[in-house]
Write a structure and sequence with these properties.
By secondary structure, the chain is mainly β. It contains no helices and ten strands. Strand 8 and strand 9 form a beta hairpin.
Length: about 170
């Protein structure tokens, strides 16, 4: 299976024996000593709905995994979090960036645009997402697209248990 980002390509990770993505080498939090917490967005990020993203930034290239807490039915998004690959502007920690996930069922795709902003003393990723779902015909196209916003933080915003065991 291949997942495609607008200008960047990402390939679904090979599943370990337990069927879960292996992100054990990725740190779970930023080092917290950055003068600008948006400079390096490495770490585990949580959105307001309980979805989680593990990101590793190396210069302007960012890799990671995305695990959704929101599915139409259990397993609809797949059981292995999709890999992410994105890039950020050089020398601009508050610049915008984006990523796309084509869910494993092939029936829907979500695209996020994001910007890291400092709110108080911590970084937040403010995003707008667009979800396109496959429909069976022209008469159903009205229900094919949803738009919303998410705010990702380095701390959990919900009481939801961690996704996929080790994301």
């Amino acid at each position: 299976m291949r997942l495609c980002l607008l200008l960047f390509v990402t390939v679904a990770s090979a599943s370990p024996a337990n069927g879960q993505a292996d992100v054990s080498d990725a740190p779970s939090m930023s080092n917290g000593t950055d003068a600008n917490p948006c400079e390096d967005i490495t770490g585990l990020w949580y959105n307001n709905l309980g979805s989680q993203m593990t990101l590793v930034q190396n210069g302007t290239i960012i890799t990671g995994f995305y695990g959704t807490a929101v599915e139409s039915t259990e397993g609809a998004a797949g059981y292995v979090p999709p890999e992410l690959l994105m890039s950020r502007p050089v020398g601009n920690p508050h610049g915008t960036f984006a990523w796309i996930v084509i869910w494993s069922n092939g029936r829907s795709t979500t695209a996020w645009t994001a910007q890291c902003v400092i709110c108080g003393d911590h970084a937040e990723l403010h995003t707008t997402w667009l979800l396109r779902t496959k429909v069976d015909g022209c008469d159903d196209r009205w229900k094919a697209t949803r738009v919303g916003e998410d705010t990702f933080t380095r701390y959990s915003q919900t009481e939801i248990e961690p996704l996929h065991g080790n994301l």
